[in-house]
Write a structure and sequence with these properties.
2 domains; six-stranded mixed β-sheet; 8 helices; vWFA_dom_sf; DUF58 domain-containing protein; DUF58
């Protein structure tokens, strides 16, 4: 049973799925489908229901010819969820709640299209109790996603992404990496290399209040969300502007890194709507 407020989105995979399970995508296995593959003899493929009389009459070896079609197949969709401390930020919206909404939309879309849904959550290490192997168990998926906002707060870095990439299956799939990407660029690059067998969709969760609510003039406390360490800084307009500029520089660095892997990220700076991902995939196929 799907939650009432969860919405699905349009998506499409640009490869042929090697799955033996039927689905909605182009596959490589022969079977029931609309896409013609080739003609073979009745001896090689004994299914008289697909007899092609015209091709049989044309065959110089006088063998009965059968039409073979490619079966439409399923593909796995993964929600790769960053639950590190920086994701505990709550500004206009809660990052954890946005992550939960995105994961639920991915699960809903997968189940509506007869695809498999899997999820891997991580902090400093992978969280097995909040991770799911790819499957068709819709209720289990939504029950686990509902627990994401109950993760215990505390200083946790995101080093578990290295371990998390190994939890994904070998079959090529769509990986929705949901994070604020406040990680070292070298770690992000290492993870993207490990995910090279998949198509990765980075969903970058940023909130303008991460830098807008800094004081314009006066003392302010800054806390490193990954370590919990606090610093007291005297803010002035120039310093505040430097923080804002650093976010823009970070965006440029992320864009350049993703571009090296031919990946286009999706920045989510407010409430998430499933239509954002539909637009994302429609632009990819244009």
């Amino acid at each position: 049973m799907m939650p009432d407020k969860v919405q699905s989105f349009f998506y499409q995979v640009p490869w042929r799925s090697a799955s033996v399970h039927s689905g909605a995508h182009q596959g490589v296995q022969r079977g029931i489908g609309d896409e013609f593959s080739k003609h073979v003899s009745l001896v090689d493929y004994p299914d008289a229901r697909r007899l092609d009389l015209r091709q049989t009459l044309r065959d110089p070896y006088e063998q009965i010819q059968i039409r073979v079609f490619k079966q439409e197949a399923s593909t796995p969709l993964y929600a790769l969820c960053d639950l590190s401390s920086s994701m505990q930020f709550k500004g206009h919206v809660s990052k954890y709640e946005t992550l939960q909404a995105i994961a639920a939309a991915v699960a809903c879309s997968a189940h509506e299209n007869s695809d498999l849904f899997g999820m891997v959550c991580y902090q400093h290490r992978v969280l097995p109790e909040l991770s799911l192997a790819p499957g068709h168990h819709a209720q289990q998926s939504f029950d686990t996603i509902a627990q994401l906002t109950e993760v215990e707060a505390g200083p946790q870095d995101g080093q578990g992404i290295v371990e998390a990439t190994a939890w994904l299956g070998q079959q090529k799939g769509l990986v929705f990496w949901i994070s604020d990407f406040h990680l070292p660029l070298s770690l992000i690059e290492q993870s993207l290399n490990s995910l090279s067998n998949h198509q990765v969709i980075p969903l970058v969760l940023w909130d303008p209040q991460e830098y807008e609510r800094l004081p314009r003039l006066g003392f302010g406390n800054l806390q490193d969300p990954e370590t919990g360490q606090q610093k007291t800084i005297f803010f002035r307009p120039a310093l505040r502007a430097r923080f804002v500029a650093q976010f823009e520089q970070r965006k440029q660095a992320l864009d350049q890194l993703f571009a090296r892997f031919e990946i286009r990220p999706l920045y989510v700076t407010g409430a998430f709507e499933a239509a954002m991902l539909s637009d994302y995939f429609e632009q990819l196929i244009q």
